[in-house]
Amino acid sequence: MSPRVLLTGFPGFLGSQVVERLLARDAGPVACLVQPKFRALAEERAADVVGDDAYDADGPIRLYEGDITEPGLGLGDALAELDSVSEVYHLAAVYDLAVSREVGEAVNVRGTEHVLDVAEDLAVDRFHYVSTCYVSGRYDGVFTEDHLREGQSFNNHYEETKYRAEVLVHERMAEGLPATVYRPSIVVGDSETGETGKYDGPYYLLRLLLAQPALLSVAPTIPGAATTELNVVPRDFVVDAIDYLSQHEAAVGEVVQLCDPAPLRIPAFVDSVADALGHRVVSVPTTKGLAKRGMRLLQARGVAAEPATLDYFDHPTRYACPNARRLLAGSGIEPPAFNSYVDRLVAYVRAHPEIRSDAMV
């Protein structure tokens, strides 16, 4: 049987799980675009998903070497083998707050444009695009699924390039592309197992505290943190929602924010992590500039710290998800409270110190 689905972002954190769900509902074979340097990892992951000892090139997961930064996805003549594809899932992106403008532009913006071009050439029935709530940039107020082009500034090139990529998707939707845009907030590990693919975002705080004595750990606090919400959702919620919505016609033409409707504010978030770690944490007031300089010094000494994360300690945006709540009503799919699974995230980090913070680029 020829591939029915084309997916980018395999063998990544979310992409691997989406492929697993597609196969579970017999939506395969799934053609997965992979960069050549990740071929061995992709074969290993594909075998794990299918439950085989080794990758089978004729199995339900078909690996195609290519690159979204190239026209035609770098597939060359192999693109003709995908004429049978009726659905595209575009998850590949650089998920890195410190990404350079050049890399973000190449992967997030031009890459999305190339995937859109291929989807249109294939005349697909559905296009699924994974964006981010943080296309909001530093929008001051409540950001809903109806918001996008608001004249906002951005914390970093990651946010800006994901914003520009989503604009491209909306332009194609206006021209008739049957698409759904999924905007997760900050995605952390699985709420049941704690499993994650890399330690970024809130994990920098967790690991910073873990590197300090339990009797007294220090966390910086900056002006505005007391009223700032940190919107976090677990991987399984995001994958459950994408899996469910991708099977429903009601989601065509919709933007869906997969966020926590009742997120913790920064002080409560820090307290929750501290309790799960069993650490006594003292918050030390400082300016954002000084805190970033301190994190750069820690980075230089090999400590897991990312100065860019501090921009989310005074982030002015709050997120609402009326479309998600409407479209997911009756499905039983909703994000669990952070306090209900933070202990599993902590246990996983303690058990897996080998996992890195690097993005797959």
Please tell me how large the radius of gyration is: 20 Å
Give the structural class: alpha/beta
Distance between the termini: 31 Å
Largest sheet: 7 strands, parallel
The CATH architecture name of the largest domain reads 3-Layer(aba) Sandwich
In total, the number of strands is 15
SSE string, helix = H, strand = E? EHEHEEHEEHEEHEEEHEEHEHEHH
Strand order of the largest sheet: 3-2-1-4-5-7-12
Helix content: 25-40%
CATH superfamily grouping of the largest domain: NAD(P)-binding Rossmann-like Domain
State the helix count. Answer: 10
Shape: globular
CATH class of the largest domain: Alpha Beta
Mean pLDDT across residues = 95
CATH-assigned fold name of the largest domain: Rossmann fold
Commentary on this structure:
- By secondary structure, this protein is an alpha/beta fold.
- It folds into two domains: 5-187 and 232-258, Rossmann fold (3-Layer(aba) Sandwich); 195-231 and 263-315 and 337-351, no CATH class.
- Helices cover 34% and strands 16% of the residues.
- It is built from ten helices and 15 strands.
- Helix 1 packs across helix 6 (235-245) and helix 3 (101-121) runs parallel beside helix 4 (157-174).
- The longest helix is centred in the first third of the chain and has 21 residues, at 101-121.
- It is globular, with a radius of gyration of 20 Å.
Write the layout of secondary structure elements.
Layout: E1 5-8, H1 13-24, E2 30-34, H2 39-50, E3 61-65, E4 87-90, H3 101-121, E5 126-130, E6 141-143, H4 157-174, E7 179-184, E8 186-188, H5 203-210, E9 217-221, E10 229-230, E11 232-234, H6 235-245, E12 255-258, E13 264-265, H7 266-277, E14 281-285, H8 288-300, E15 317-319, H9 322-328, H10 342-351
Parallel strand pairs: 1-2, 1-4, 2-3, 4-5, 5-7, 6-15, 7-12, 8-11, 9-14
Antiparallel strand pairs: 10-13
GO molecular function, one term: alcohol-forming very long-chain fatty acyl-CoA reductase activity
Domain Thioester reductase (TE): 7-242
Organism: Halogranum gelatinilyticum
